[in-house]
Amino acid sequence: MAKDATSGATSLVSRPMVIEGEISGDENLHVDGRVKGIIRLTGDLFVGVGGVVEAEIDARNVIIQGTVTGKVLARRQLEVQPSGRFNGECTAASYEIREGAVFEGVSRMITSAQPDNLTPAPSAQKSNNQP
Amino acid sequence: MGLFAKDKTSAAPETGERGGGETSFFGAKLMVKGKVSGGGNLIVMGKLEGEFDLNGELVVAASALVNGEAKTVSVTVSGGFSGSLTAKQRIQLEKGAVVSGRLQAPNLSVADGAVLNGEIEMKQPSEGKPAAGDPARKQKK
């Protein structure tokens, strides 16, 4: 499983919390609540059971136990665990989709020929009222 | 406590608290912009910008910088806050806090060494007890 402890800490969006907007930084993020908007991390994104993420995502590893909808760039790996649901478009260097998981949408692989610094999707897809 | 199922599946190394569950934590290297709402407590160590409507306690740690409009049950600030802060119960400014803007709460405490510039409104809860001798207004630099 593509997981190595990042240098950084892990931030947590707990179950009752809802975030609409943009989350970015050099950390891992664990989402048990709801996030809508944009997530850009140099660390890993972990969506726990019950977590719902509707976002444009750029992270190192993306591990899904809950529900993720949107456009995902997983620079290392996208992992959808048996309780997980992914719906959207994903670009990743590798995939791990467990039996029971749902993956609906488009998948693209990052090949070794591609530079590591893929540009994240050019614009926010919707729904955030940035100043 | 302690009986909550803690899933031990991969990732998220130190989320030991998640069983107890309802405290969110934004680390020092995380920046959040937008609207944050819902229940539970929130500890902020990084940057936070936007609108917050929390049904719990907000803790703005010393390293944090929060900018925007916050409505919570109670707030403890040790870092930077600018904007409007409304708490149903209490606002507590610790040493090192740098706060500017508008504060509204029935209880306010300001520690020596906190910087507070702005407007304060203290509304007592209608049937509530008096605000335990908290200073009504303070201006420090």
Structure overview:
- The complex is a heterodimer of chains A (131) and B (141).
- Chain A is 0% helix and 58% strand.
- Chain A is an all-beta fold and 131 residues long.
- In chain A, 50% of the residues are buried.
- The model of chain A is unreliable at 1-6 and 121-131 (pLDDT under 50).
- In chain B, strands 1, 2, 3, 4, 5, 6, 7, 8, 9 and 10 form a ten-stranded parallel sheet that branches.
- Chain B is globular, with a radius of gyration of 16 Å.
- Residues 1-21 and 127-141 of chain B have low confidence and may be disordered.
- Classes of the chains: A mainly beta (131), B mainly beta (141).
- Chain A binds chain B through residues 1, 3, 5, 8-30, 32-34, 37, 44, 46, 48-49, 61, 63, 65, 79, 81, 128-130, and chain B through 7, 9-15, 17-18, 21-40, 42, 46, 50, 55.
- Strand 2 (17-25) of chain A pairs antiparallel with strand 2 of chain B, so a sheet runs across the interface.
Helix content of chain B: under 10%
Q: Mean pLDDT across all residues of chain B, rounded?
A: 80
Structural class of chain A: mainly beta
Structural class of chain B: mainly beta
Q: Report helical residue fraction of chain A.
A: under 10%
